[in-house]
Design brief:
Membrane topology: Single-pass type I membrane protein
Oligomer: single chain
Strand content: 25-35%
Largest sheet: 6 strands, mixed
CATH topology of the domain at 8-125: Immunoglobulin-like
Subcellular location: Membrane
Keywords: Disulfide bond, Glycoprotein, Immunoglobulin domain, Membrane, Signal, Transmembrane, Transmembrane helix
Shape: elongated
Number of helices: 5
Family: Belongs to the myelin P0 protein family.
Strand order of the largest sheet: 2-11-10-5-6-7
Protein name: MPZL3 protein
CATH architecture of the domain at 8-125: Sandwich
Radius of gyration: 37 Å
Structural class: alpha+beta
Helix content: 25-40%
Order of helices and strands: HEEEEEEEEEEEHHHH
């Protein structure tokens, strides 16, 4: 019968919860009981600071929530659970670095009073610290960023050359920009041939060299 009592109530809680300073955090706790839920059901949340010390009760529930009337969590812990659904979760508002520590969710539903004791470690950090780059990630960025820039510049240059060749193909132009600059200018641009040649010269980017 001792074994049946031990297994009659099971509690589950997250082993580790991360939070940011000033942002509400949820501490989940769920339970399963072999006995019907009654008004005798009790939920207790206890806390031990990260630096160590004795465990202290920071929240109590029986029929209604009983938040702490004093202590560091006064007016900051709220009941968000639903015992009918096997939920005994709580929420902490405006967590701070001093809240880091171990929380334990305990449930008693007479005659089911024996259960496992899962622990939840709360880790509160500054949000800015969560986005700091590790040395390996920073080194990778410094190594690969120049290579990416070089590839982008090459693609842009190839795109410009392709557009120049495409325009030259449309105009039927065969001479290089150097050959064009050495030719004397013709003031007579009358006729289709002169206008076409003038338009083609305007299409060519004189800063680019033709491939040979």
């Amino acid at each position: 019968s001792g074994v049946c009592n031990v297994l009659s109530l099971e509690i589950k809680a997250s082993p580790k919860v991360r939070a940011f300073v000033g942002e509400q955090v949820l501490l989940k706790c769920s339970f399963k009981s072999s006995s019907p839920i009654t008004e005798s059901l009790q939920v207790d949340w206890t806390y031990r600071p990260l630096a160590g010390g004795h465990m202290e009760t920071v929240f109590h529930y029986q029929s209604i929530p009983h938040p702490p009337a004093a202590g560091k969590f006064k007016d900051r812990i709220f009941w968000v659970g639903n015992v009918a659904n096997g939920d005994a979760s709580i929420a902490i508002q405006s967590p701070s670095l001093s809240d880091n520590g171990t929380f334990i969710c305990s449930v008693k539903n007479p005659p089911d009073v024996y259960h496992n004791i899962p622990q939840t470690v709360l880790v509160v950090t500054e949000r800015g610290l969560a986005f700091q780059l590790s040395s390996a990630a920073l080194l990778s960025i410094l190594v690969f960023l120049p290579s990416i820039l070089v590839v982008i510049l090459l693609l842009v240059r190839m795109g410009r050359k392709f557009r120049v060749l495409k325009e030259k193909g449309k105009c039927g132009y065969k001479k290089s920009s150097i050959e064009v600059s050495d030719e004397p200018e013709h003031t007579d641009t009358a006729g289709c041939g002169g206008k076409l040649r003038e338009w083609c010269l305007n299409c060519v980017d004189t800063d680019e060299e033709d491939p040979y």
